[in-house]
Q: What sequence folds into this?
């Protein structure tokens, strides 16, 4: 199976959506210098139209600092990428019932090992929330970063849903980002809320053969480090050894009907990153000998013209206790059966 797949495929269309309160605003995306208080005051005094243009400009400036742009450019047109050293890896992951943990919007605590200090900030280049976190989006106290100022899919709040099911098979054959890939993933994941509604994510009709702001290694990757200090994926997740990961295009469903097609789906089998009370840990809190599978449908969509991401809330069909719609899926499966082999 050799699909001509890339995240730049024209079928992945940009859909205008409401600005999610996550990181879409990020008023101070360029505040690596200057007085944050003065900039905040100026932003409040601006007309809405001017404020929107200013925020868009700031976001573009942060995107221009994406640390992977040179590497990605070198691989963008490669139609005959090399294979994985030692040969392809086939992966099967299943969960056949039991609960799943569904993340709720929260203010992520910021790990100093990942984000540095206000004097020496780290992890800020790229689309806010996808690849970095602008310094002005970080709360400070006594010379240290404390938490993200905006709600995100990463934090300590969660709910448990029933009848979690996961059926995934995948092949990691292509080693690097490229214009074409031999990687593939077939996944169906579902869970059920207290009212009996069934939520489902299916992937992948296309693999993200080439990343927009960080590598995707042909769409499927095995045995690598992601997130945190790696600068591959959002730094709002801890730095975690990842046994298997995929990026591809799929659909979000509710009660058997597609409610949001053409979404970028990310899944990964990693070290255990939760602590007491199911709090999302820092790097020092990782449990290396336990595993969990993360399924993410982020509130962003790729913009093919700019090569970056725009805020785009996911139509999950699930409402929070305050009546607002949940604008992303971040679901964790832990009752897993895992198989993998070469060849």
A:
């Amino acid at each position: 199976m050799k699909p001509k797949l890339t995240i730049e495929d024209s079928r992945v269309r940009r859909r205008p959506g409401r600005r999610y309160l996550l990181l879409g605003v990020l008023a101070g995306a360029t505040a690596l210098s200057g007085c944050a208080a003065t900039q905040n005051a100026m932003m409040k005094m601006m007309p809405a139209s001017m404020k929107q243009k200013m925020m868009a400009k700031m976001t573009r400036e942060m995107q221009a600092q994406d640390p992977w742009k040179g590497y990605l450019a070198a691989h963008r047109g490669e139609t005959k990428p090399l294979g994985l050293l030692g040969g392809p890896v086939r992966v099967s992951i299943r969960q056949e019932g039991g609960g799943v943990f569904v993340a709720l919007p929260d203010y992520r605590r910021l790990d100093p090992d990942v984000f540095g200090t206000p004097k020496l900030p780290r992890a800020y280049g790229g689309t806010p929330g996808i690849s970095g976190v602008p310094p002005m989006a970080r709360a400070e106290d006594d010379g240290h970063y404390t938490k993200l100022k905006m709600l995100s899919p990463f934090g300590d709040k969660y709910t448990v849903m029933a009848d979690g099911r996961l059926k995934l098979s995948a092949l990691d054959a292509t080693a690097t980002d490229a214009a074409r890939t031999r990687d593939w993933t077939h996944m169906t994941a579902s869970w059920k809320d207290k009212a009996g509604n069934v939520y489902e994510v299916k992937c992948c009709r296309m693999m993200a053969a080439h990343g927009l702001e960080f590598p995707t290694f042909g769409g499927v990757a095995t045995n690598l480090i992601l997130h945190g200090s790696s600068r591959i994926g959002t730094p709002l997740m801890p730095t975690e050894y990842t046994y298997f990961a995929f990026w591809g295009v799929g659909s979000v469903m509710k009660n058997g009907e597609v409610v949001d097609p053409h979404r970028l789906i990310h899944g990964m089998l990693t070290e255990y990153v939760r602590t007491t009370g199911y709090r999302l840990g820092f790097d020092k809190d990782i449990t290396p000998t336990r595993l969990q599978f993360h399924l993410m449908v982020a509130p962003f969509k790729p913009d093919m013209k700019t090569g970056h991401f725009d805020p785009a809330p996911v139509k999950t069909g699930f409402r929070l206790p305050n009546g607002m719609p949940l604008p992303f899926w971040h679901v964790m499966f832990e009752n897993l059966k895992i198989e993998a082999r070469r060849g």
Notes: Residues 78-107+150-342 form one domain. The chain has a mean pLDDT of 89. The radius of gyration is 19 Å.
